């Protein structure tokens, strides 16, 4: 369990305010209709100082989500990066989770929100290993969810939108209450999509495979990095092939990727042991290279880091 640790300041609508003063009205549109977007970004401490991992890509996806959700945001990627740097310095954090968000604010109560302001905020705070340190080594147990991943006929899955995560909430809670660590969702066509808040990879016959965005998977920034790392390690990566449930059960290895989960092995799905039931050798190599990357130890990936 990760409990929020209060920091000094949060940036909100152009101003740095005290943590306890970052408030919205109870009739804020997003609280009632889910009309908000967000990003999850990590800052890691390296030998060269704190560095934000793939900041440009994250803030560009943030602006893409805004566009998909009909939000006009005047800030640029570079301006958001500057705010994130300031926020980390003000809060004296070398490692942190950065959470920008934007949402339809207080104004009209109707669904259309034509005259509601767009409020923007950014917080940062300490954030450990999402599924636990042990999970990084031993892996997690997953349940195939009874809930179906949303698709583009319902809402834009490529938007990191608050409303979309009600779908994830149901899947995650169901898995936890059934005694598992996490969930895996299929799409409406029966193909594997993703976890409740993470992309999914499997390894089969020395190939690294992940569902395509057309399966309803979010275009993961960590997933993109892992695909590049996997190719550089000499692994064949297949990213545009649909995966069915049976492919998961018969995989040699499986793992989640994402800002929160980083690279977390999956050892069991629906009581079926994956591979040896331990972190697989290819997963371990990818995981080690990923953590070396975010810690600034690999020269070839230094351009993925924005130093504070």
Descriptive labels:
8-stranded antiparallel beta sheet, 308 residues, 28% strand, globular, 9-stranded mixed beta sheet, single chain, 8 helices, alpha+beta
Rg over CA atoms: 19 Å
Largest pleated sheet: 9 strands, mixed
N-to-C series of helices and strands: EEHEEEHHEEHEHEEEEHEHEEEHE
Low-confidence stretches: none
The total of helices stands at 8
The percentage of residues in β strands lies in 25-35%
User: What is the average of the pLDDT values?
Assistant: 96
Rough outline: globular
Instruction: Please provide the count of β strands.
Output: 17
Coarse structural class: alpha+beta
What gap, in angstroms, lies between the N and C termini? Answer: 28 Å
Q: Estimate percent helicity.
A: 25-40%
What is shown here, in short?
The chain is α+β, with helices and mostly antiparallel strands and 308 residues long. The chain has helices at residues 29-33, 55-68, 77-90, 133-138, 165-177, 221-232, 245-249, 281-294; strands at residues 9-12, 15-18, 36-38, 41-46, 49-53, 96-104, 118-125, 140-148, 182-186, 192-194, 199-204, 207-209, 236-238, 253-258, 262-269, 272-273, 305-307.
């Amino acid at each position: 369990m990760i409990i929020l640790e209060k920091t000094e300041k949060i940036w909100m609508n152009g101003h740095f305010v005290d943590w306890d003063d970052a408030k919205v009205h109870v009739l804020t549109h997003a609280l009632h209709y889910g009309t908000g977007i967000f990003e999850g970004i990590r800052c890691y401490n390296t030998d060269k100082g704190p560095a934000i991992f793939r900041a440009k890509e994250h803030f560009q996806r943030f602006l893409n989500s805004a566009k998909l959700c009909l939000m006009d945001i005047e800030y640029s990627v570079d301006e958001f990066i500057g705010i994130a740097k300031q926020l980390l310095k003000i809060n004296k954090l070398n490692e942190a989770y950065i959470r920008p968000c934007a949402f339809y604010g207080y104004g009209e109560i109707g669904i259309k929100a034509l005259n509601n302001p767009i409020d923007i905020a950014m917080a940062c705070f300490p954030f450990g290993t999402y599924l636990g340190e042990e999970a990084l080594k031993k892996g997690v147990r997953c349940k195939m969810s009874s809930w179906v991943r949303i698709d583009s006929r319902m809402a834009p899955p490529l938007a990191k939108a608050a409303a979309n995560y009600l779908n994830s909430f149901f899947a995650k809670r169901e898995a936890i209450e059934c005694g598992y660590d996490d969930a895996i969702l299929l799409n409406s066509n029966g193909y594997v999509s993703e976890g409740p808040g993470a992309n999914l990879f499997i390894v089969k016959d020395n190939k690294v495979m992940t569902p395509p965005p057309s399966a309803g998977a979010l275009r993961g920034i960590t997933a993109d990095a892992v695909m590049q790392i996997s190719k550089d390690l000499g692994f064949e990566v297949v990213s545009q092939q649909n995966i069915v449930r049976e492919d998961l059960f018969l995989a040699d290895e499986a793992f989640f990727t994402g800002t929160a989960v980083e690279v977390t092995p999956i050892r069991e799905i629906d009581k079926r042991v994956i591979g040896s039931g331990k972190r697989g050798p290819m997963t371990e190599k990818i995981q080690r290279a990923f953590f070396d990357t975010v810690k600034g130890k690999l020269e070839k990936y230094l351009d993925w880091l924005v130093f504070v």
